[in-house]
Amino acid sequence: MMMNKLPIPADHDDGSGRPRADLAPAIRTAADAEPGSGVTLLEVEAEGRTWLVKHNRGVLGRVADKDEAIQLASGLAAWCRSQGRLVSFQAD
Predict the structure, then answer these.
(1) DSSP state of 24
(2) What is the dihedral of CA 88, 74, 7, 80, to 10 degrees?
(3) Statement: residue 26 has pLDDT above 70
(4) In degrees, to the nearest 5, what angle opens at C-alpha 15 toward C-alphas 4 and 71?
(5) Gap between the Cα atoms of 88 and 40, Å rounded
(6) In 3-state terms, what secondary structure has residue 91?
(7) Which pLDDT belongs to residue 91?
(8) Which residue would you say has higher pLDDT here, 26 or 39?
(9) Nearest-CA neighbor of 3 among 87, 61, 85, 73?
(10) What contacts 25, CB < 8 A, 6 or more positions away?
(11) Residue 5 to residue 14: CA distance in whole angstroms
């Protein structure tokens, strides 16, 4: 499954196509992101030659490139934070 890239607002872009480091999602432990804890868990995980983007332990999709998976998960994490949600973002 191919995922569409989320746009990164110009004021969040550091020029590399990734969100600025100072706007990166808060990193919490997986224990903080247990179901019912109110924390949105986003993960990037290797599977064979592809990378999975996961949301609350469910697979959203897969991409061939780790950097692209991280960019997608970072964009989702930034959006969740803009909605007032606590976020745990973990990359394998």
Answers:
(1) P
(2) 10
(3) no
(4) 30
(5) 6
(6) strand
(7) 82
(8) 39
(9) 61
(10) 42, 74, 77, 78, 80, 81, 87, 88, 89
(11) 17
Tell me what pLDDT residue 90 has: 82
Q: Which two tokens stand for residue 53?
A: 């983007």
DSSP label of 19: B
The two tokens of residue 4 are: 């569409």
What is the per-residue pLDDT across 41-73, written as a single tens digit (0 to 9) for each? 999 999 999 999 999 989 999 999 999 999 999
Q: Bridge partners of 46?
A: 51
* Residue 79 pLDDT > 90: yes
Asked if 77 and 25 count as a contact pair (C-beta separation under 8 A), the reply is: yes
Are 66 and 6 in contact by the 8 Å Cβ rule? The answer is no
